[in-house]
TrEMBL record:
CC cofactor: Cu cation
Annotated organism of origin: Devosia sediminis
Enzyme class, spelled out: translocase
Domain of life, source organism: Bacteria
GO BP of this protein: ATP synthesis coupled electron transport
Gene Ontology molecular function, alphabetical: copper ion binding; cytochrome-c oxidase activity; oxidoreductase activity
EC annotation from Swiss-Prot or TrEMBL: 7.1.1.9
SUPFAM superfamilies: Cupredoxins, Cytochrome c oxidase subunit II-like, transmembrane region
Recorded name of the encoding gene: coxB
Entry's family note: Belongs to the cytochrome c oxidase subunit 2 family.
First and last residue of the signal peptide: 1-27
Free-text comment on the cofactor: Binds a copper A center.
Ranges annotated as spanning the membrane: 63-84, 105-126
Protein name as annotated: Cytochrome c oxidase subunit 2
Pfam families listed in its UniProt record: COX2 (PF00116), COX2_TM (PF02790)
């Protein structure tokens, strides 16, 4: 019976591994085009290019990884001690005690303290993400144990992202310019460059300037459903709720294309709502906006940008 259970479990593990193979194959398709995207065999977080993501990486590496490593090692040591000292051969007569008050107090208090240690710095990270810079407030950056030491300029570009069914609409609020961004069609996918992410690339990327604070206003169609705007390399994830305007921000310090996805289950095409943000130089951004204002056409404006 035990043998049968073992083989059934091994069969379930094998089935799970086979189910993961398409995802691994998809990851292998992603190459050097763009910067912020998953990598084959990736274990760590995506490359950070913003102060917000710097603080998230520091929180992950400096607190979470050490905490979970300590917990795993403690559990492992306790399991070994129990197997060696309290097996049937070493204890032919079973113990008759029912509880231990001291141990119960310890395993209640210690997890509470661990959660407090995790929670306190996480509040600062979350506050940074949700507080748009005004040019005076300082941010945590890579040192989450500071009270704020990273200076971030006030936002000079405002973009509204609206989740539709199932694509994104972007508006440069100050200029009154808007366009839709969809996942690539089958015909466009056939023309992808080698290594370009098939399920993350979009037809129209959101273009923003490098080293510039961008205020992101996030909402959803009034007659639609809830979405979430998320770009891992920027460290942002904000719900897009119909009838509500949420805000976050980012300041990307390196040019390139950064990818994200809708991160809230939103219906049949939830998996096909990628986000593409192209960070360009300030001069390229200004030329793009000028052409967009003149032509009122995204494709015409995008033609001013250098080829990928």
């Amino acid at each position: 019976m035990v043998t049968g259970q073992f083989f059934r479990k091994m069969g379930a593990v094998s089935a799970a591994a086979l189910a993961l193979m398409p995802a691994l194959a998809s990851a292998q398709e992603i190459g050097a085009v763009g910067r912020g995207h998953p990598e084959p065999g990736q274990f760590h977080l995506q490359e950070s290019v913003t102060p917000i993501m710097d603080s998230i990486v520091a929180f992950h590496d400096g607190i979470l990884m050490w905490t979970i490593t300590g917990i795993v090692l403690l559990v492992l040591v306790l399991l070994v001690i129990i197997m060696v000292r309290f097996n049937a051969k070493a204890n032919p007569v079973p113990a008759r005690f029912t509880h231990n008050t001291l141990i119960e107090v310890i395993w209640t208090v210690v997890p509470i303290l661990i959660l407090v240690v995790i929670a306190i710095p996480s509040f600062g990270v979350l506050s940074d993400q949700m507080t748009v810079p005004d040019g005076e407030r300082k941010y945590l950056g890579a040192n989450i144990f500071s009270l704020g030491e990273v200076e971030v300029p006030a936002a000079t570009v405002t973009v509204k992202a609206s989740g539709e069914q199932w694509y994104w609409n972007y508006e440069y609020v100050d200029q009154g310019l808007a366009f839709d961004s969809n996942i690539l069609s089958e015909a466009e996918i056939a023309e992808l460059k080698p290594g370009q992410p098939r399920l993350l690339a979009v037809n129209n990327e959101l273009v923003v300037p490098v080293n510039t604070t961008v205020r992101m206003q996030v909402t959803a169609s009034p007659t639609g459903v809830i979405h979430a705007f998320a770009v891992p390399s920027f460290g942002i994830k904000v719900d897009a709720v119909p009838g509500r305007l949420n805000e976050t921000w980012f300041n990307a310090r390196e040019t390139g294309i950064y990818y994200g996805q809708c991160s809230e289950l939103c219906g049949k095409d939830h998996a096909y709502m990628p986000i593409g943000v192209r960070v360009v130089t300030v001069e390229e951004y200004e030329a793009f906006i000028a052409a967009f204002e003149e032509s009122r056409d995204y494709a015409t404006a995008a033609a001013t940008l250098p080829a990928l």
